[in-house]
Amino acid sequence: MTQPLTRRQLLERSALLAAAPLLPLQAFAQERRFEPQPGAWRTFDLVTTVNVTEVLGTTRLWLPIPDVASDWQQPLENSWSGNAKRARIVADPARGVRMLYAEFEPAAGTPTLTLTSRLRTRDRAVDWSEHGRISEDPALLRANLAPTTLLPTDGIVRKTAVEATRGAKTDLDKVRAIYQWVVANAHREPTVRGCGSGDIKAMLETGNLGGKCADLNAVFVGLCRSAGIPARDVYGLRLAPSAFGYKELGANPANLKGAQHCRAEVFLRE
């Protein structure tokens, strides 16, 4: 009988396998023949309903909408209903993230808003033999090198990145070294609220590297950026059960409470 793998064994079997020009590198365990292949598109209606029970003056809501357009996800349309005085799609000027903004007058009673976002997705896989298949916008790569409030690239973050990548020559070698450093030093802490805050400076300064997806992925992304390698964390929802039997990679489509998740991507040049 095959013995179950430990968490570290699962992580060490992830997909840090080979370089490809400007392709996102993802870490997925290979047990149970985890071999997703791009196939048929599946369309989902993602419905979010908000009822504000405690009202003090004007109420304002910002609800995220699906916004990553790629060869594995395509946002289609958004519609909404409720008793908002005004509602419109807006974007964060600094990051370009889009969301639905709604404003309610005090006389409206209980603020109610239902947002329906239609999107389609399919299994994602990277063919490492297809060189030059993806061409990324230089502005996007610059953005994925920039520091943020929770992802600084100097100080202890830079010091840690230098230590983790000592002796590594290529970008791929550096990414592998950073990944192995995170595996060896960080761990998932189930008592952390939500997905975590992703405050990597505080994590590194205190030495407390326990967290959830937003914390662990942020450490990886921050160290990559500090090493001069474009990286980002992608936030979203798990919409459907895993086709490969992984509870952690799937969700109950009837109720997505608790289905929030974060994953890390790094962009590699040949």
Please render the helix and strand layout as text.
Blueprint: H1 7-12, E1 23-25, E2 42-51, E3 59-64, E4 73-82, E5 86-91, E6 98-104, E7 112-121, H2 138-143, H3 155-164, H4 171-185, E8 187-188, H5 200-206, E9 210-211, H6 213-226, E10 231-237, E11 260-268
Parallel strand pairs: 8-9
Antiparallel strand pairs: 1-11, 2-7, 3-6, 4-7, 5-6, 10-11
What is the gyration radius calculated from CA atoms?
20 Å
Count the helices. How many?
Answer: 6
Q: Point out poorly predicted stretches.
A: 1-30
Q: Globular, elongated, flat, extended or rod-shaped: what is the shape?
A: globular
Topology, number of strands = 11
Average pLDDT number = 83
* N-to-C series of helices and strands: HEEEEEEEHHHEHEHEE
Strand order of the biggest β-sheet: 1-11-10
Strand content: 25-35%
Proportion in helices:
10-25%
Just give the CATH class of the largest domain. Answer: Alpha Beta
Q: How many domains would you count in the coordinates?
A: 2
CATH fold call of the largest domain? C8orf32 fold
* Broad structural category: alpha+beta
Major sheet details: 3 strands, antiparallel
In whole angstroms, the N-to-C terminal distance is 41 Å
State the assembly state of the protein chains.
single chain
Q: What is the CATH architecture annotation of the largest domain?
A: Roll
